[in-house]
C-alpha cells in the first residue's frame, strides 16, 4: 500500500498532494489525519518551508515514524525560493534507517506577491507524472 501525507498552511502543498495522490491512485491525507497503524510501501511526504524549516506537525510525525511503518520515502513540496524539505526529512528519517530518495518533486509556491498562481496546472501535471513514474518503477 502506498500513501500520501502532507502539511499545508496555505493550500499550495495540498494542491500538489492531491495531484501526487492522483498519480499514485490513493487519497492524500493531511498530517492530522495520518493513520500510523497501517504501514506503507512508498510514503510520499509533502511539506513546505516556513522560516527555513518544515512545519512542526510534520516534524513531529516524522520523529515518531518507525522503520517497520514504511519501506521508502519520497518528498514533494512548494516554497517561495529554492529550499526544499528534502534535507530536513532526511535528517530525521535516515538515522533511524528509513531511506529517503534524492528524487524529489518541488515547485514554486505563491507567497505574498511572489509566484502568483503557483503551483499552476503544469506543476500539478508534472507532480502527478512524478508519482506515477515512481509507482511504476517500484512495482
Ligand atoms: C510564515 C511563512 C514563512 C515562510 N518562509 C519561507 C522560507 O523561509 N523560505 C521559502 O522559500 N519560502 C517561505 N515561505 C513561502 C512558503 O514556503 C510557500 O508560500 C509555500 O508554497 C507555502 O505552502 P502551503 O500553502 O502549502 O502552506 C514562507 C511562507 C510563510 C507563510
Index terms:
6 strands, 6-stranded parallel β-sheet, binds flavin mononucleotide, alpha/beta
Question: Helical stretch count?
Answer: 4
Q: Which spans have pLDDT < 50 for at least 5 consecutive residues? A: none
CATH fold field value: Rossmann fold
Name of the CATH architecture: 3-Layer(aba) Sandwich
Binned strand content = 15-25%
Global structural class? alpha/beta
Largest sheet: 6 strands, parallel
Radius of gyration: 14 Å
- Identify the CATH class: Alpha Beta
The CATH superfamily bears the name Flavodoxin domain
Architecture overview:
The protein is α/β, with parallel strands linked by helices and 139 residues long. It has one domain (3-138): 3-Layer(aba) Sandwich (Rossmann fold). Helices cover 35% and strands 22% of the residues. It is built from four helices and six strands, in the order E-H-E-E-H-E-H-E-E-H. Strands 1, 2, 3, 4, 5 and 6 form a six-stranded parallel β-sheet that branches. Strand 4, helix 3 (86-93) and strand 5 form a beta-alpha-beta unit. Helix 1 packs parallel to helix 4 (121-138). The model has no long low-confidence stretch (mean pLDDT 97). The structure holds flavin mononucleotide. Flavin mononucleotide (FMN) is lined by residues 8-14, 48-52, 78-81, 83, 109-111.
Structure summarized in a few sentences:
This protein is α/β, with parallel strands linked by helices and 139 residues long.
Layout of secondary structure:
Blueprint: E1 3-6, H1 12-24, E2 28-30, E3 40-46, H2 56-64, E4 70-79, H3 86-93, E5 99-100, E6 105-108, H4 121-138
Parallel strand pairs: 1-2, 1-3, 3-4, 4-5, 4-6
Helix pairs in contact: 1-4
The structure holds flavin mononucleotide.
Amino acid at each position: 500500500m502506498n500513501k500520501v501525507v502532507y502539511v499545508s498552511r496555505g493550500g499550495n502543498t495540498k494542491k500538489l498532494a492531491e495531484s501526487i495522490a492522483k498519480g499514485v491512485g490513493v487519497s492524500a491525507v493531511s498530517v492530522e489525519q495520518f493513520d500510523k497503524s497501517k504501514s506503507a510501501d512508498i510514503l510520499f511526504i509533502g511539506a513546505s518551508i516556513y522560516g527555513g524549516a518544515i512545519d512542526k506537525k510534520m516534524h513531529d510525525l516524522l520523529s515518531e515514524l518507525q522503520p517497520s511503518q514504511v519501506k521508502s520515502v519520497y518528498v514533494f513540496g512548494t516554497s517561495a525560493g529554492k529550499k526544499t524539505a528534502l534535507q530536513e526529512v532526511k535528517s530525521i528519517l535516515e538515522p533511524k534507517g528509513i531511506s529517503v530518495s534524492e528524487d524529489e518533486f518541488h515547485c514554486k509556491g505563491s507567497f505574498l506577491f511572489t509566484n502568483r498562481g503557483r503551483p499552476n496546472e503544469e506543476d500539478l501535471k508534472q507532480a502527478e507524472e512524478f508519482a506515477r513514474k515512481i509507482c511504476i518503477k517500484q512495482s
